[in-house]
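Assemble and predict.
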Amino acid sequence: MDKIIEVRNLRREYIRKKGIRNKETIVAVDGISFEVGRGEIFGLLGQNGAGKTTTIKMLTTLLAPTAGECKVLGFDCFGEEEKIRNKINFIFGGETGVYRRLTARENLRYFSNLYMLNSSKQKERIDEILELVDLKNRADDLAETFSKGMIQRLQIARGLINDPEIIFMDEPTVGLDPVGARMLRNIIIKLKEQGKTVLLTTHYLQEAEELCDKMVIMKDGRIVKSGVPSEIKGGYVTLEDAYIDLVGGQVS
Amino acid sequence: MAIRRFFEQAYLYHKGRQAAFNAEEFVLLEVGYPLLTMIFHCLIASYCYGTNDLGEWVVGNSFLLCVNSCIFGLGIVFMNERYTGRIRSIIASPCNKIALILANGIFPAILAIIASFLGLIVGVIVFQIDYSKVDFVYIFISIIVAMISASCFGLLLGVLGLLTDSMHMVLNMMEGLLLILTGAEFPIEQLPICVQYVSWSIPLTKSIKAVKGIRVGDYKNYWLLLLLELLSGIVYVVLARFLFAVVEKETRKKGSFDYY
């Protein structure tokens, strides 16, 4: 299978100031390696602070690696980012990232302009995506009148606006109600059917098991296990039990 | 196509970030507050210099009305984007960053032109200034050039918002510097020589001098001063683009795009 994400010995450190003179180095990602094939749904799992978001930020060209290799579509994420940006997009969980004083449609027009979509394609794409995330009836309402779940759906629409080849999703179901979460899972499956690649982080292990072709479990910036869900589960009945064991929790 | 996209982006930027919700809010924020500030400064000048001919101060202070939208409005643009988590989408997009920076400045510049022109008219009426010998077309051209330059300067300051979270301090300091150094409140010839160089390098100084000149019938250096003002604006935008590229790289290394 064509490898479109390649991560080798990737490391990311942050320097944190402690007082006036002292500095502390924090290792967020500590020499991880993995590959993602075209058309795969790949899961990055781990506790808060495991390094998942930092990894996604490096892959989406927002953060420079301290060491190691980080390639998307064969291009370096730091140095060759211009060749990548048109073909990827990302969805971060939470309520930030959209303009609350714009309508849903205006938000999507704004973000599609960032990807330089021409006007006929833009209109068509916006209508299509609004339908996909079930916001067509509220398309001309201001985002500030939306519920948390609706804003998250608008975020999803924003992430799909440029019809990306690879979509990075960082806890995309945060804030979604069960119907919204199911809708997102269906969108992810649909994207896979279209040949898109999805890299996903989530705390919902059932969701990860249902969606992911392959996954890695991260702990303290390192990968503690990788493979297909059945390999990760090993002898445990559920992925949750295996996960808790791997991250050092107590399985009851 | 690119032009349509540019202006649409300018409109959406403005509406999404700064547009007032209702007419009252808009009038108070963009017109009421700046006009009162201008009247206040002119009254201080009247008291300090013991004169009733406030023509010079009305010109200078009406130009300074742009501070509200061009300096404070634009100066916090990128800082706001960081606070709201939208900067990620902007940075990681393939769009032309110089067009993106310029599109930010369109509406604040238009608002600043309106505010300055209104300020001048209100100042002329309130302080009974005699402008009967001055061609208002020249003044209007000066205002347009000055506001373009001020907007470009605001954009340059705004890029610093990618680096620091102390933009309010930077912008307040900048407002003070503009008050002192542009010649709006007193002639820049009264400043030390080295500070005069700073005066000439900041926006508004040249256009204020041009308008003060035509007020007393001196049209000799008018076009030269406006050309210099316009060139300053171009230099600010080029610097903003350059700074944006440097800062983008630096913040990607430091990991300081997001506030949270």
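Residues 57 and 185 of chain B are 6 Å apart (CA to CA).
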